[in-house]
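Final report, Chapter 2: Outcomes

The project's central promise was a pipeline that accepts a single protein chain and returns its three-dimensional structure in a standardized token representation, suitable for archiving and comparison. That pipeline is now operational. To close this chapter, we reproduce one record exactly as it appears in the project archive, with the input sequence first and the structure output second.
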Amino acid sequence: MKVTTPRMPVNNITIRCGSIEEVIKLSQLIPEFENPAGADVYRTRLGDVDHLILIAEWGKPCAFKVGYDRDGDGSFYSWMGGVLPVARRKGIAQQLAGEMEAYCLSKGYDILKMKTRNEHKAMLQFAIRNGFHVTGFKAYPDPMKSRILLEKSL
């Protein structure tokens, strides 16, 4: 299925459904990912539950966003995503987020959940700008590795 995003066309970006293999290749090129998840982790998490894998193309694949029905409670979990450094600040993450929200609404989800690490300030700012609210915190020995839990009503 090919999905284009008329809401915010920026520099000929195309958003389409993708595969675990594409996500793994892209995640290995994201500098913030210390140890990107492998195919086995993706298959275990996505398994038999409703999930969405989006790939953004700007000439070639440059970003991804993956989410799934983690809790079975009417919420959808935005699990993993990233934009290659060369493609940042072009609205691509915003387009991917918009497509995921549209998908969630079409499937009847009423809450979108996510978490980020304390060290990923840009991701936290992006989430807050997009209507997410902090709902929890998981402390780790290294405070920068601590997780910030966020939710957004759809």
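Archive annotation: Residues 2-113 form a domain with the Aminopeptidase fold (CATH 3.40.630.30).
This record, like all others produced under the grant, will remain available to the consortium after the project formally closes.
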